[in-house]
Design goal:
The strands form six sheets. This protein has an eight-stranded parallel beta sheet with strand order 11-10-9-5-2-1-15-14. Strands 16-17-18-22-20 form a five-stranded antiparallel beta sheet. It has about 575 residues and is an alpha/beta fold. The structure holds 6-O-alpha-D-glucopyranosyl-D-fructose and calcium ion.
Length: about 575
């Protein structure tokens, strides 16, 4: 009885500021809250057999590089058999490795190789849709009576037209006519990516069996592709003008999402010690929080894109202000102890972080890439790094549409031009926002094709700056972006304050400097980032007097805060500790 009474006292006290520490202790410790994820887009990571396409043996050849970097978890973008209408996000066989990537033995060798070094592997679960070349779809399309018909979503036409006016994210209608009965099937993405019908319990069981197959092989969890879209509004309502510009408002608000996620957790995930992160494209912070509330037993984490995609309006990249951006970090760090944020600035669907958030000119590229490293690895939440970010790879200089590969860019081309936008404008915007920027091959050395392949060419152009920006050059240079990431990964691993500490923005209105503390679990850390091309004087509060400089991206001398102002060079990043 006494202990119960004591617990109530602690719980009540936890509402008061002065016992913040006990509150922090109430955050449930999980390995996936403490570790750092590195995303690999296998097509572009490393080619081992000279066909110009990345593959699993290529990744295996770089496990030591990943181990040296010091990341803890690898997220592998889809490695499954696929016709590559959307580079693997259109799966033809969920239990087979894509031929270009290698064999199941290669996959097992990769998984074991990572595990031997204490590195975990999560794989991409793409179950909102499959490929139209999947056996299920071929059966489903063959006739209305086929037992697989209801694995997908079929509707009769409406007066000879599509069932409703829903758009595909990849251009045109979300409905495509197919099969002998003249009906239409639903596809939120490309025509070759028909949406699976989660209303069908048989389909859901098929998905759960696929999950168990990979979990029983030993994978450590899943990144769940567009998982909020799996529940569809069964009345399939027409969209008004505003919705047509934001179809995700309808697509990501289906009525049975939580029921499906809870069932998936109960039937599969709860039987394994794994992590799940949902790609929550287009969903609200509130929905993201409901999906990841640990009391609801749905998924652990979700990518909220508001930070990474700030200023984005579809393929247009608008201006944005630093204080708006900082407010998003504060919002997601203010989540209570039942939620845990993700921290990321890019992925395979977004431009290179140093080009969007830093300054990728020769003068400031390395400094700003290191500044972003300090941001990613000192914020509150699980950091997700993307291949090439650790060496400050930049956007690609696209000069013509022929250089793009992306089905989303090609699929939207006609619609965009039909809306009156010129090809030049579309190209200029895509040079800021296009998905192919992050998909150009990883730059390993200053040799031909960046050391990505020893073949004649690569599936997508290698950035011409590979001769200066590549892993080998960075590894040789102790002051490189790569080694700055390594030092931060080490510091983060050893200091719980940077993992579970409270987050506080100490100057939220400042539109040049991003400065915040992490506190409450041991030492207090102060991070000061000059996110501008100008030198600035930053007023520093007396409370930080005596703080020690732990890491900086310039050659600093004054390593203890003494004066009232910090003189920061352009893109200077500093990490201080209270003692
Ligand atoms: O943001 C987007 C919508 O315009 C797209 O970049 C992206 O399609 C969206 O974030 C969903 O992405 C995921 O599902 C897609 C696939 O093309 C992306 O690569 C994947 O990350 C369909 O599977
Ligand atoms: Ca290859």
């Amino acid at each position: 009885m006494k202990n119960h009474f004591l617990l109530i006292i602690i719980l009540l006290a936890c509402n008061k500021q002065d016992v913040q520490y006990e509150c922090e202790d109430m955050v449930k410790r999980e390995w996936w809250k403490e570790q750092v994820v590195y995303q690999i887009y296998p097509r572009s990571f490393m080619d081992s057999n000279g066909d110009g396409i990345g593959d699993i043996q290529g990744i295996i050849s770089k496990i030591d590089y990943l181990d040296t970097l010091g990341v803890d978890i690898i997220w592998l973008s889809p490695h499954f058999d696929s016709p590559n209408a959307d580079n693997g996000y259109d799966i033809r066989n969920y239990r087979k490795v894509m031929e270009e990537f290698g064999t199941m033995d290669d996959f097992d060798q990769l998984l074991n190789g990572l595990h031997e070094r204490g590195i975990k592997l999560i794989i991409d679960l793409v179950v909102n849709h499959s490929s139209d070349e999947h056996r299920w779809f071929q059966e489903s399309m063959s006739s209305k009576e086929n037992p697989y018909r209801d694995y997908y979503i079929w509707k009769p036409g409406n007066n000879g037209k599509e069932p409703n006016n829903w758009p595909s994210f990849f251009g045109g209608s979300a409905w495509e006519q197919a099969g002998p009965d003249g009906e239409y099937y639903l596809h939120y993405f490309a025509k070759k990516q028909p949406d699976l019908n989660w209303e069908n319990p048989k389909l859901r069981e098929e998905v759960y069996d696929i999950m168990r197959y990979w979990l029983d092989k030993g994978v450590d969890g899943f990144r769940m592709d567009v998982i909020p879209l799996i529940s569809k509004h069964q009345d399939f309502p027409e969209m008004d003008e505003e919705m047509l510009n934001h179809p995700e408002w309808i697509y990501a608000s289906g009525p049975r999402l939580h029921e499906f996620l809870n069932e998936m957790n109960r039937k599969v995930l709860s039987n394994y010690d794994v992590m799940t992160v949902g790609e929550a494209f287009g969903v609200s912070p509130e929905l993201t929080q409901r999906m990841t509330d640990e009391r609801r037993n749905e998924i652990d984490l979700a990518f909220l894109f508001d930070i990474a995609r700030i200023g984005r309006d579809n393929w247009t990249q608008n201006e944005w202000k630093l204080n708006e951006w900082k407010a998003l970090f504060t919002m997601q760090s203010a989540l209570d102890r039942f939620h845990w944020p993700t921290i990321f600035l890019t992925n395979h669907d977004n431009p290179r972080s140093v080009s969007k958030f830093g300054n990728d000119s020769p003068e400031y590229r390395a400094a700003s890439a290191k500044l972003l490293a300090m941001l990613l690895l000192t914020q509150r939440g699980t950091p997700f790094l993307y291949q090439g970010e650790e060496i400050g790879m930049t956007n690609y200089p696209f000069t013509s549409f022929e250089q793009f590969d992306d089905v989303e860019i090609k699929g939207n081309y006609d619609d965009v031009l039909a809306s009156g936008v010129s090809a030049e404008t579309y190209l200029a915007e895509l040079n800021k926002s296009g998905r192919d920027h992050a998909r150009t091959p990883m730059q390993w050395s200053d040799t031909i094709l960046g050391g990505f392949t020893d073949g004649e060419n690569s599936w997508l152009g290698v950035n011409p700056n590979y001769d200066e920006i590549n892993a080998e050059t960075d590894i040789r240079n102790p002051n490189s972006v790569f080694h700055f990431y390594r030092r931060l990964l080490d510091i983060r691993k050893d200091n719980e304050s940077l993992i579970y500490g409270e987050y506080l923005d100490i100057d939220p209105d400042n539109n040049q400097v991003f400065a915040y503390t992490r506190s409450g679990v041991g030492d207090t850390y102060l991070v000061v980032l000059n996110m501008s091309d100008e030198a600035v004087s930053f007023d520093i509060n007396n409370e930080f007097k005596g703080y020690n400089l732990i890491l900086c991206n310039t050659e600093r001398t004054d390593d203890i805060i003494g004066q009232e102002q910090l003189k920061l060079q352009p893109w200077e990043a500093r990490l201080y500790r209270s003692n």
